Amino acid sequence: MRNMRFIEIFLAYRDPKTGEILAECYGTYANPGIPASRDSAPQALVQGLDMKAIQKHYGVLSASLNGPKLSTATWWEIDAGTVRQFGGLKAPHTAQLNLGKAANINAVDPYVTKTIARKSAINWAKGTIVMLLDDPSGNTWIMKGYELGLKPQRTYEQFMAAGPSVFKKLPPGWRARMVTLQQDNLEVPAGGVASILSDEFFNVYDRTGPGMSNSKP
Fold first, then answer.
1. Average pLDDT, stretch 37-47?
2. How far apart are CA 56 and CA 60, in angstroms?
3. 1 contacts 74 by C-beta, under 8 angstroms
4. CA dihedral in degrees (43, 47, 49, 51; nearest 10)?
5. Residue 138 backbone class (left: φ over 0; alpha: ψ -120 to 50; beta: rest)
6. β-strand partners of 130
7. How many helices (H) and strands (E) would you count in the chain?
């Protein structure tokens, strides 16, 4: 899965019990097989997506696009559910994200923890160079998806070459660092609920350590 390009589409609705906004996640990475090109979301098809039409078609509060992104993990294993059609792309259901009060994925504040329910395992192999964020509470977060977007500003290689200095909006007490993993970081979220967040560039990170992964880099 490393360097595989993908998108996620989130279909959001309000939970009548809590008033919170939940979003069903559909990811192109969960389609059968990995393309030889490692591109599960071709640019032309992604550009052709009409999110307002998708919102209307599925009768949801909002429909939002996450990505295109590149996987920075070595492999993913994830339960795939109902497959839905989005323009010229198909994507299986993979998770349910708690958006809180945000209307869609693009309205989520950076460096704020969210929870996502998914049955999954994700691994970053020993020897992989990864970007990490450390928060003031002692948590370490590992980058899982690098944001390309529809109009990429820089490549993943350029981002990593810039290193921690690329971050300009880290909250007080946060720091970024790059490490070469000394062992596999195998993530299997306890209870099927993962803790995630995004940075100022809309790259996505997963928490490491107890309850999430076998190590804390």
1. 96
2. 7
3. yes
4. 130
5. left
6. 179
7. 3, 14
Cα dihedral sign, 52-8-161-164: positive
- Identify the residue with better confidence: 129 or 35: 129
Local confidence band at 100 (pLDDT 50, 70, 90 cut-offs):
confident
2, β-bridge pairs: none
Six-digit token string for 96: 């349910």
CB-based contacts of 138: which residues, under 8 Å, 6+ apart? none
Helix (H, G, I), strand (E, B) or coil at 158: helix
Hunting for tokens 């992104």 — which residue is that?
A: 69
Q: Domains of the chain: which residue ranges? A: 5-207
- Tell me the C-alpha distance between 189 and 209, whole Å: 10
∠ at Cα 70 (165, 121), nearest 5°?
Answer: 105
